[in-house]
Amino acid sequence: MSKNRGVVYVGPGKVEVQDIFDPKLEAPDGRRIEHGVVLKVISTNICGSDQHMVRGRTTAEPGLVLGHEITGEIIEKGRDVEMLCVGDIVSVPFNVACGRCRTCKSQDTGVCLTVNPARAGGAYGYVDMGGWIGGQARYVTVPYADFNLLKIPDRDRAMAKMRDLTMLSDILPTGFHGAVKAGVGVGSVVYVAGAGPVGLAAAASARILGAAVVIIGDFNKERLAHAAKVGFEPVDLSASDRLGDMIAQITGSNEVDSAIDAVGFEARGHTGGEQPAVVLNQMMEITRAAGSIGIPGLYVTEDPGAVDSAAKQGNLSLRFGLGWAKAQSFHTGQTPVLKYNRQLMQAILYDRLPIADIVNARVISLEDAAQGYESFDKGAAQKFVLDPHGELAKAA
């Protein structure tokens, strides 16, 4: 193994690629683990959730190695790993999950009860998620490998499709989960809030689930133009604060069957100012009676940069009575990636879901990660994929 390098959160607004420790088969508390593997990272992506930390909108401490979207090759395994081999190409769910607790056994791997002493749920390279080192690096450790890892069956095919398969670690299952929990099915009219990568993944998921119309709302004109280019109906939220009326111009009705929040807690209102609950309140307005709302967008328990004291503690001013009166269903929380990633892998391998083109994936080197973060933060209509060893460039 050559020297490890990783993307490190330095402070609000700044990341650096630094030398970091080589991975070991150890848990964050230093215990030796034999159920884990060490991966040579083939691809690892910059996520909007990472941006929340980098903007200083969480309690993340400087020095955190970032990255929870990981695909790699096994180069070392513990003696308890029985179903995977050195040389296997694997997709890593962003959830760290033990596979043995009550929630893991019910496929609710986003809230594993054992991998994080602070709360339910673990993840790589993320604040308050158990201390697992992130994978925006050349090498990374993955615990509970037999349970967590999805083997991609054919190496050559995997490398040829890696721009798509890299999305299996988070944004594609997250978008799909949002669409499923929003009740999307054949003939559905769907509204997606946010034309970033997760919103586009949710829109693509709605389409493959049979939606008749998929509408995407955003303020970012470049992202809206890309959404239109890949076949979705864009709504420019800067044009009006009457979302229902803009939807009616597309469908003839000011209500939708299903709504998906792919924005989260840094939502902004029509005036451009931050309004943390605006998306959720809009969704209750535009979703029909007995409709469903999926909320894969991130909401946090602590937001130091929030606009008011309540939001700093994760308390939002929701018009919940409206949702109750309309008998709507809401579903929130970390996506249990393992529930969906195998099916979505098959859809990619058999050319049913060209997700890299839909989210406008752009491959850059690991050493260029800081520039990728900066461009993404400015609203670039792209999904940045890091190529730590240059293998994606070779495959292309």
Automatic annotation (TrEMBL):
InterPro entries in the record: ADH-like_C (IPR013149), ADH-like_N (IPR013154), ADH_Zn_CS (IPR002328), GroES-like_sf (IPR011032), HCHO_DH_non_GSH (IPR014184), NAD(P)-bd_dom_sf (IPR036291)
EC number: 1.2.1.46
SUPFAM superfamilies: GroES-like, NAD(P)-binding Rossmann-fold domains
Main enzyme class: oxidoreductase
GO molecular function: formaldehyde dehydrogenase (NAD+) activity; zinc ion binding
All residue ranges annotated as the Alcohol dehydrogenase-like N-terminal domain in the record: 35-154
Domain of life: Bacteria
CDD domains (UniProt xref): PFDH_like
Cofactor field: Zn(2+)
Keyword Secreted part of the UniProt annotation: no
Keyword annotations of the record: Metal-binding, NAD, Oxidoreductase, Zinc
Alcohol dehydrogenase-like C-terminal domain mapped to chain residues: 197-265
Pfam families xrefs: ADH_N, ADH_zinc_N
Family, per entry: Belongs to the zinc-containing alcohol dehydrogenase family.
NCBIfam families: fdhA_non_GSH
Official protein name in the record: Glutathione-independent formaldehyde dehydrogenase
Organism placement in taxonomy: Bacteria, Pseudomonadati, Pseudomonadota, Alphaproteobacteria, Hyphomicrobiales
